[in-house]
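#lab-general

N.A. 3:47 PM
ok so I finally got the sequence cleaned up, no stray characters, all 246 residues accounted for. can someone with queue access submit it? mine expired

B.Y. 3:52 PM
send it over

N.A. 3:53 PM
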Amino acid sequence: MLEVEALSAGYGSTQVLHGVSLQVAAGQSVCLIGANGAGKTTFVNMVTGYTKPDSGAIALDGADLAGRSPRDVARLGISRSFQIPQLFIELTACENLSVAFSGARSHALSFYAPANAPDRRDTAIELLARFGLADLADRPISELAGGVRKLIDIAMALVRRPKLLLLDEPTSGVSAEEKFAVMDRVIHAVAPDAATIVFVEHDMDIVSRYADRVVAFYSGRILADGDPGQVLNDPEVRRYVTGGGR
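B.Y. 4:20 PM
back already:
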């Protein structure tokens, strides 16, 4: 589904990615791991159009994505959530989803009409229900806990029913007691659309439990790529990424 070939990028004199190539098949749950600065988020930003690569190719089902805008990438079937939830905190959960539906269906974005359209409200509540959040539909985001905000941000990414969903640290800022519950809800919510998932994560408990493939980044390159047991026990990954020894 996703094909990335020889992707390179830098900021000024600093090279961030060095000829990264990666293929992701439909239906996979792929986790990207690596220390801060290893290139994971830059990779995600390039796939989703937020950063343009210096060289290389990106394709989704054969459609060229390199250099396209985030909106174009989203229309072609890739959605993402962010490490810090991108929400309108003065609006309710339902209104946030309604705004997302408006943006998905129109080139012009209205910040008022969508929240008051009955059909969009019904659809927004149905999507919130997938995450077990329908009872919070009319609560302002400012009143909701960090884990709930994460889930609503991911729900907004599902509005377009993407082929590929990219999640940047879905459990970042979530308490240890909440992390498995948050990921369980995400997996349950994504299942009806059968979206392929690529997620960035630092919590190895989450990685080993929810990924069926792990890609380890180190210094802008892919250090290891395989099933979780294989990658997490790789001596180089343990030395440079997880800190598990030499």
